[in-house]
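Structure ticket #2291
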Amino acid sequence: MVPIIQLFGIDVVRFSIDLLTLYSLFLVVSLTLNLEAGYAGIPNFGKVMFVAAGAAAAGSASGQLAAFVLMINTHGNYTGYIYQVIPQIDAALTHNPGLSIGILLFGMLVAAVVGAVLGFAASFPAIRLREDYLGMLLLAAAQFFQIILSGYEPIIGGTQGIEVPNVFGWFFGDEIGVRDVVVLLVLGAFALLVFVYCEKVVRSPLGRTLRAIRDSELASRSLGKNDVAIRRKVIVVASAISGMAGALLTFYLGSVGAETWTRVTWTFWIWVILILGGAANNAGVALGAFSFTLLLKAVDQVKFNFQPFIPVDVNWLEYIMFAALLIGILVVRPDGILPEKPTLTLPRSVLGHIMESSVNPVDDEKSQPAKQTI
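Resolution: structure written out below.
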């Protein structure tokens, strides 16, 4: 059991765990949007579709796989008998860490594949439409996808939703707080890997190509770059990562439903994070995600204290605050907290040596071996 430390009536440990867990998820999805919009110039206003698709696919497929492996009778209707099947699966997983980890990895793999497939399908209009029309199309597609999830019961039980296997229950069972710490470690490791991957991409020749395509498609084509194929790859990879983020949050919550993933949280707030931190700057996105999450959790803790002083329901306070924050950032600092900066293609030590050599060419020539003449 994790310790309880009270400060101003708030459990600091519990608050920190929830804060870092949500931050890890926001960071992952924001980094994928930064790859698409910040570096490649693709205004993806349908992020919720890829997150929700990964969540739904992982939640449904992992439970059915567990039932099959454990030979639990689903009567041919997994979602219809979900409340009988899941308790049996959880009881078995509590004593089987190998199967639990296998189901977790399987769910993430399924989520990545589903996200990539949807990203590939979304890449066709992304290539043909300009920014405004593409944003509206992806926004409408995300809403249509949520309608399908709520109306087609075999996936996640329609509007009722379904429970998913407790793949973290084997670690000290369900002891209070311990499971959440394990989930945080998994999410933190995943977020760190995604951040390192995104940094590697943007510092590679591909990253410089993405910026060239974003700034001028005509110029990049004149240099022989296939902007269509490159943008398609970016969308597919970003969608696959977003799907895995959705899968991880589903396993953390222990359930998934059609209304769990709203476009406000997983589209509009992700864009606020990107604008707040600074587009085309992964460090800025990381800082923006942390600032946004900290402010969100802090307001959620204290907002009811403001009810006597404001004329509206306090549940709308966070929306009003973030709208004002977004307007203020766009007016005062439109490039974000950390604006886009040139990417170093070589280590600083190598660049410094090159600059010194250019300043003192004579010394550099003396260090070279003398050429023999015939």
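Closing remark: The CA atoms of residues 303 and 309 lie 11 Å apart.
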